[in-house]
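Q: What would this complex look like in 3D?
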Amino acid sequence: MTAILLMNSILFSIAILLVIAEKFLVTYGECEIVINKDKMLKVQGGDTLLNYFAQAKIFIPSACGGKATCGYCKVEVLSGGGHILPTEEIFISRKEKLKGLRLACQVKVKNNIEVLISPDLLEAQELEVTVIKIEDVTSDIKYIFLRLDEPASIKFKPGQYVQFKIPETDEFRAYSIASSPLQNNVIELVVRLVPSGLCSSYIHEALDVNDKITLTGPFGDFYLREDSGRDIICIGGGCGMAPIRSILLYLKEKGMPRKVMYFFGARSKKDLFFTEELRELEREFKNFRYIPALSEPRPQDNWDGETGFVTQVVERLMPEGSDQEAYLCGPQPMIDASIKVLTQKRVKDIYIYYDKF
Ligand SMILES: Cc1cc2nc3c(=O)[nH]c(=O)nc-3n(C[C@H](O)[C@H](O)[C@H](O)COP(=O)(O)OP(=O)(O)OC[C@H]3O[C@@H](n4cnc5c(N)ncnc54)[C@H](O)[C@@H]3O)c2cc1C
Ligand code: FES
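A: Here is my prediction, written as structure tokens for the whole assembly.
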């Protein structure tokens, strides 16, 4: 037993020494990173693709800040990336593996390397913003207004998100844009406090009016498909309100050209927000319906609206039909249950779009 323990601690120490030695002693010399066959970065090897991209102001989604826990930083590596690491396995499907997809935060550049980055991602940029207003909309959700300084405006699709850089750190977190893309000099966010969460605690406890913040973006393939006339079903919960609000404000400004039903799940009345704005939208457009559902209304709520889990309410009220598309945003269990209901209602899975967080 003692011999095994001794052997294990020797192996562990050797592993640590190898990591330290690689970090401080191994140099890989100059390496070339060729992007989309036309752009070349010359770097001193040893760091990750993600970091070299950031240094070159190429901002690809990296919601976990390079810890291999979000799976968002996928790029296609055509050559020179070495073997896929165990940390990448859970995020890369068999089909993606065959295509050469890798997590940019896990690929260390040790030699020349050739990659393909989706042209959409090359449009993401660094955004310098100033906080102009902060409001409490529930006991744990803040509504943040940011003015764009540099650049002075942003182009994004309703439903997309930005990454918020936590000051004095290299950490980023993703937040969906809650405002309309037609109001392009301001970005609004809604941020829920996650107990002991690094970024949400910073935003709730330290962020103040006039603070300067760095964002990157826009990112994400959860956005309104404008090339369709299908009726729209939106299902949201918590801060899942943000991207759906952006979609609704955009549709409002376009004259609400399509029929929209918006189901929003909350525990009790105190967890509802933007209610008056959504009711106003209902009054303005006959083809828009807002249906909040409370799972645990309190007696003092005097609630005469829908009750139960939001998916039960969707099941009860949503019409059946394959000519509909759905936008879902909220916690994973809500999304999974919603997809089941929508499938029963004959919505085609290719028309179900979602962001889980
Ligand atoms: C595409 C996308 C869009 C997003 N949009 C929004 C948005 O509009 N508003 C918003 O508030 N958040 C949004 N998020 C979530 C956000 O990016 C952060 O994950 C969240 O704010 C927690 O970050 P943190 O630094 O405070 O917590 P961390 O320091 O990252 O985490 C602290 C602890 O909390 C746990 N944790 C992390 N996130 C959650 C969570 N959501 N619920 C419960 N536990 C959690 C972690 O596992 C960890 O144990 C989005 C996420 C994604 C991927
Ligand atoms: S940045 Fe999150 S997995 Fe790479």
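A: To summarize the key features: The chain is about 25% helix and 30% strand. Residues 63, 161, 173-176, 190-192, 194, 196-201, 220, 239, 242, 355, 357 surround flavin-adenine dinucleotide (ligand 1) (CB under 6 Å).
Q: Very helpful, thank you.
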